[in-house]
DNA polymerase III subunit delta' (Jeotgalibacillus campisalis), 334 residues
Amino acid sequence: MAANWNELQQWQPLAAQMLVNSLSKSRVAHAYLFEGARGTGKKDMAVFLAQGLFCLRPDEGVPCMGCDHCQRIKSGNHPDVHLLEPDGLSIKKDQIKALQEEFSKSGVESRRKVYILTFADKMTSQAANSLLKFLEEPHPSTTAILITEQMHQMLPTILSRCQHVPFQSLAPVLFKERLIEQGVHPTMAALLGKLTNQEEEAIRLSTDEWFVQGRKIMLKLYEVLKIHPFEAMTRLQSEFLPHFKEKDQIELSLDLFLHIYKDLLYIQTDKLDHLSYPDQLEVFQKDALQTSTKQLSVQLTTILEAKRKLHQNMNTQLLMEQLMLKLQGGSALV
């Protein structure tokens, strides 16, 4: 996860700048709602904001990260910064009540207090109503940071009392770099950066033998389709269908296929840093020279149309057979 200002600024520039401006001008809101998909750095930014509020040596709103307060907040050991997470499947009323009692006391080391509420959408109705009273009558120098992936599941009255800070999904190139830092092989990180923006899922898939084998099957299917289109039908029966069985697995296979053809387009437009299959560069370069941009556009549209038909519960075997024929012929599904 992000550990310093430069990384946060790179990953979430709008959110980072908004919060630093508030810190530097001493215009911090009493409550924030950090909203966005999992893996977008919301909790990191909450810690950053808390550090900015307590830091002994801030530089134009940016915490130093090195003072005693910054270090203890980072390690979760600051007495005036409280992290509240679901107890089991939900955040319960008793947890909010205990938080209110804690915040009715004076700060241990300063007048300021901060609480970070993760998965705020998982509050029970009783907990949400208790928190609402807390937000309606905020204690002086208290800052609330609510974190959610499902803003629409929260009470509108709570949302109206928070400053909304949206978090965007990480750009695939940045996410790829993040995965490589976590030990994922660069070749696999390039593809996973396109398939998901959730770090835990990406790391799991990178060592999942089913996924690794699925990637090989789709690359082989692509190769066979170029040379022996009718053999592709045979491989559908012998390799593809036994491996990709569930609907979500079929959808993943279509995404794997889609990124093969996108790579050809990236090569034609000299965007090699965008490749999902960098280990196939030599092969794909030859293919890109023999394929027109117009044909690639049709093939990409064909795969996207197959994804749409999949969600309409079309028979998966028939769907894939049609896809093989249309891709080879260079025309879209009808």
Remarks:
- Strands lie at 31-35, 81-84, 113-117, 142-148, 163-166.
